[in-house]
Write a structure and sequence with these properties.
CATH superfamily of the largest domain: Carbon-nitrogen hydrolase
Radius of gyration: 31 Å
Largest sheet: 8 strands, mixed
Structural class: alpha/beta
Number of helices: 20
Number of strands: 21
CATH topology of the largest domain: Nitrilase/N-carbamoyl-D-aminoacid amidohydrolase
Strand content: 15-25%
Strand order of the largest sheet: 13-12-11-10-9-8-15-16
Length: 698
């Protein structure tokens, strides 16, 4: 398979939010600047949508000039020029202008494409407080507005009930203040089917307002499960009373994926002459998220009126095409012919694809998250322990690896909160044929340093007896009743490095679980990544009575242990915890090398965990198939470089194992949910154990 590189094929829609320099009350100059900006942006990135600020063809700060015939005629002329130029531009263009409608003047957003004015959306809410006095100049949108406005002999769709259909994108438009009111018009547009909201704005700069603006855009995108693009007035606007910074923002389902420079962002005190922001939004992901939430249709009855859909999809025919309007609330546009670009990076996404979606890059945010996760894990275990006799041993198997260390740290925290003696924790070290001196020492130092009850049980004699009872030759070696443990250990370490024996591994894992289950309330240690991949022995380490790590991915476990070392055990177990965090990930069920080093490296067997966790996130949260996961992986930089072949192989391994091991996830123990991705069969992921993965792999 060739890794697909077509962003549109994978549902990405490119938006350019631009704030060019304007000349107050000179629409001809503003049209020329808008057209030049359009051409530059198209040449740079070939967007699907270009969004300009509120009243950008006239400038926002014209004051009483908005009532003059000269300015209104010139603004309409500017719109005609932009519409004509759009014939050569493969993008939908949204611009703002004052427009005479009947005897009134209205603050309008116009969408043009393919040489035509496709629709006009008036502003619903006019600010008329403090520094704003728009009601002096404009009429607000109302139910009495005409359904069309005649321009140059064409009846152009007009109203706040318009949606613009562009293939996978359904665009709703609102203007500045519309976002700042209790129920923005975009809320209704989203219910009617819009998955992209464009906001033309003229939001001035005040102390603290940028963060307020940012919060509004991000939160509205989250409420609507949509993309939200915002372009605000900037350079060239009058500074008689206000300063405009050209703040452009793009958000997607509650996450800010980009923002432009604005005044005050740097030591440069000058106003930005022009600002712009170009980002790709994932419409497939938004569509998936809406299907998962499933509540949009529940609010259809709250729509104040039916919405009209205007087909603005590019025809690909090279012929001008006028607006086509339907009264349905959603519609499918014509297939759009992709235009390939000469640029080598034409399909490089203009957005950051996080290589570690479970682990924040920023140190302070990562530490904040680690503290919160440990608190959630601890709270879940505290509640469970409160339902049990106080003297019931809390039993946990300690290997000297990451997962069991994290679970033990949580257990200690929970017992401390309950003001119980740490000796109620029964930490059992169970070295087997694969245990190295390194991990055994780490386990011993850990339990001793934490002051819990500890015991070491060598499971090798039990395992040897089991092999004899079931007639199994471990790794092909002959054994009998006279076989000595040390002799078998020595022979096992000399076998071929590539030798495998699943029964040999499973016997050891199940013996450990049997020993734990016979002693008290067993705390599980398996993490989310292992659940996803089925990297556990059924009825072995797969089973416990409560699992505090059930929702923690492998890439995050290491940081949690490091956080505990640096913030909670700096003076005692700091070195031990960091050594555990640096130990290669291994179940240690196969014998070590002859020199005592770990032979069984999990990532060497199934692929890097940073890739598996990346795929896990995008499969569960985005519903991605292998092709899209590989495409996304090719858009980011991981800690270590991964070839396209490794990415594809690991992605297919992930999907295959994810489907094959649902039967294990169907009967996992309780455990606290700590993030947006969880595989609990009770609350988060329900899937038949015999479902086919073919459609997701091919």
């Amino acid at each position: 398979m060739t890794i697909p590189k077509q962003r549109r094929q994978h549902g990405f829609y490119r938006i350019a939010a631009v704030s060019p320099k304007v000349v107050v009350a000179d629409p001809a100059a503003n049209a020329a600047e808008t057209i030049a900006t359009m051409d530059a942006v198209v040449q740079q990135s070939n967007p699907d949508l270009i969004l300009f600020p509120e009243l950008g063809l006239s400038a926002y700060t014209c004051g009483d000039l908005f009532a003059t015939q000269t300015l209104l005629d010139a603004s309409l002329g500017a719109l005609r020029a932009i519409a004509t130029h759009s014939y050569s531009c493969d993008a939908a263009i949204v611009v703002g202008l004052p427009l005479r409608v009947g005897t009134s003047v209205m603050n309008v957003a116009a969408l043009v494409r393919g040489g035509f004015i496709r629709g006009l959306v008036p502003k619903t809410f006019l600010p008329n407080y403090r520094e704003f006095y728009e009601a002096r100049h404009f009429q607000a949108a109302s139910a009495n507005d005409p359904a069309t406005v005649r321009i140059d002999g064409n009846d152009v769709p007009f109203g706040t009930d318009l949606l613009f259909q562009d293939d996978a994108a359904t665009l709703g438009v609102e203007i500045c203040e519309d976002l700042w009111v209790p129920v923005p018009p975009s809320s209704y547009a989203a219910l009617a089917g819009a998955n992209v909201i464009a906001n033309l704005s003229a939001s001035n700069e005040l102390i603290g307002k940028a963060q307020w603006r940012r919060d509004l855009v991000v939160s509205q995108s989250g409420r609507l499960i949509s993309a939200y693009a915002y372009s605000s007035a900037g350079g060239g606007e009058s500074t008689s009373d206000l300063v405009f910074g050209g703040h452009c923002l793009i958000a997607e389902n509650g996450a800010l994926i980009g923002e432009s420079r604005r005044i005050g962002d740097t030591d440069d005190e000058d106003l930005p002459v022009q600002t712009q922001l170009i980002r790709d939004v994932d419409l497939q992901r938004l569509d998936h998220d809406r299907r998962v939430v499933g509540s949009f249709d529940d609010f259809q009855s709250s729509l104040p009126r039916p919405y009209r859909t205007v087909d603005v999809a590019w025809s690909g025919s090279g012929k001008k095409q006028g607006p086509s309007v339907t009264s349905s609330q959603s519609g499918k546009g014509n297939e759009r012919g992709d235009k390939e670009h000469d640029q080598a990076d034409a399909n490089r996404l203009l957005r950051r694809v996080d290589p570690h979606p479970f682990v924040p890059d920023d140190l302070s945010k990562r530490e904040e998250r680690c503290g919160e996760i440990l608190a959630i894990q601890t709270a879940g275990l505290v509640k469970r322990l409160q339902q049990l006799p106080a003297d019931l041993p809390l039993t946990i198997g300690i290997s000297g690896g990451l997962d069991s260390t994290l679970a033990l740290l949580v257990a200690v925290s929970a017992v401390d909160q309950l003001k119980r003696d740490r000796k109620v924790i029964d930490a059992i070290i169970m070295p087997g044929f694969g245990t190295t001196q390194h991990t055994n020492d780490s386990a011993t130092q850990l339990v001793e340093g934490l002051g819990v009850t500890s015991e070491s049980i060598d499971i090798r004699p039990l395992a040897l007896r089991t092999f004899l009872d079931i007639g199994h030759s471990p790794l092909g070696l002959e054994i009998d009743a006279s076989t000595e443990i040390d002799d078998l250990q020595s022979r096992l370490q000399k076998v071929d490095a590539n030798a495998t024996d699943l029964k040999f591994e499973n016997v050891q894992a199940r013996l450990r679980t049997m020993l734990l289950m016979s002693r008290g309330f067993v705390l599980g240690t398996g993490d989310l990544s292992e659940q996803a991949l089925g990297w556990s022995t059924y009825n072995g380490d797969h089973m416990s009575m409560y699992n505090v790590n059930a929702s923690v991915p492998k890439t995050l476990v290491r940081y949690l242990v490091q956080y505990a070392a640096d913030h909670r055990y700096r003076s005692t177990l700091h070195e031990t915890l960091h050594r555990i965090a640096d130990t290669p990930i291994s179940p240690e069920l196969l014998p070590p090398t002859e020199d005592g080093e770990i032979r069984q490296n999990t990532e060497a067997s199934i692929g890097p965990y940073e890739l598996h966790d990346f795929f896990l996130y995008h499969f569960v949260r985005g519903g991605c198939d292998v092709a899209k996961m590989c495409f996304l992986a090719g858009q980011t930089e991981f800690d270590l470089p991964h070839s396209a072949e490794v990415i594809e192989t690991t992605a297919k391994t992930f999907v295959r194992r994810f489907f094959q091991n649902q039967f294990k996830r169907n009967c996992v123990p309780d455990g606290p949910k700590i993030g947006s991705v969880s595989l609990s069969p009770r609350g988060d992921w329900r899937m038949p154990a015999d479902a086919s993965s073919a459609a997701f792999r091919d």
